[in-house]
Amino acid sequence: MPHPPVTPPKPEFTAQEAVYQDNAKKFRPFSFAVKDHVLRYNLFVPEDTAEPLPLVVFMHDMGSVSEETDATLRQGIGALVWADEAEQKKRPCFVLAPQYSEKSAFDDYTVGWAAEATIQLIEALCSEYNIDRTRIYGTGQSMGTMMLCELLITHPRFFAGCFLTAGQWDPERMAAIRDEHVWIMVSEHDGRAFPIMGACMAAIEKAGGRVARGHVDARADEAAKARFCKDVLAQNAPIQFTWLDGDSVLLPGAHIFPAVHHMSTWKWAYLFEPIRAWLFEQKL
């Protein structure tokens, strides 16, 4: 008798991630109507908006697809870290976390309606709030990274910079992003993201683009993270392709399943403060 499919468990929060969980309360839920669809989203508005401020747009993974507007705020810190009080003191910004109700990026390198709807939502928010249009930043994980790759291709120079984690896209088309400012982080043992994104980087270089590379232990201390990021940026390229070494993304006693390295990547990626700082240095 066949067994029912088993859904891989999501990695538990680390102590480092847990300190950001209360930031979910700082977001307000909204909805945005576009044609025959409704795009739910969460928005963090900083206290002082007298001066134009950047907008960080976080796009979640497929595991967080839901009709519940705040699902994206409960599956990791990709949105929450930017709204943290300490982070806001250094890098004040608006934070947008769309909530996708269906799968929105596919393995055949196509996207659903939500991709363009997200662009329209960003435009609408820029008209409503004091957002600096020269400093719109995209970030995402897995499905969210895939969506952002497509949007970087179809909307060049829309994002001032992007931080992409645990994802991949079409190597035959990714050369189009060679002049964008992008930092990519994957796990070395991610069976899809690491090799396919590597092929994307090769395509970018074949087209004349420049790519910096580097790797680091996911659990490196802050000083080591700073040295790693400094060495990558010293290569003076608009695109950084970086990976987390071997099994370093796995927690002690982690349940092992096929996608565990993939799903563990973003547990560590958003804890790299120098990458967050790099993102905010980008401007159109």
Describe the structure using short key phrases.
globular, Rossmann fold, alpha/beta, 284 residues, single chain, 29% helix, disordered N terminus, nine-stranded mixed sheet
N-to-C SSE string, H for helix and E for strand: HEEEHEHEHEEHEHEHH
Mean pLDDT: 95
Number of strands: 9
CATH class: Alpha Beta
CATH topology: Rossmann fold
Distance between the ends: 59 Å
Q: CATH H level: which superfamily?
A: Alpha/Beta hydrolase fold, catalytic domain
| Helical amount | 25-40%
Please describe what this structure looks like.
With 284 residues, this protein is α/β, with parallel strands linked by helices. It has one domain: Rossmann fold. It has helices spanning 15-18, 85-90, 113-128, 143-154, 193-206, 222-233, 260-269, 273-281; strands at residues 28-34, 37-44, 53-59, 94-99, 131-141, 161-165, 182-187, 211-216, 239-244. Strands 1-2-4-3-5-6-7-9-8 form a 9-stranded mixed beta sheet, sandwiched between helices. Strand 3, helix 2 and strand 4 form a beta-alpha-beta unit. The longest helix has 16 residues, at 113-128. The chain starts with 14 loop residues before the first helix and ends with a helix.
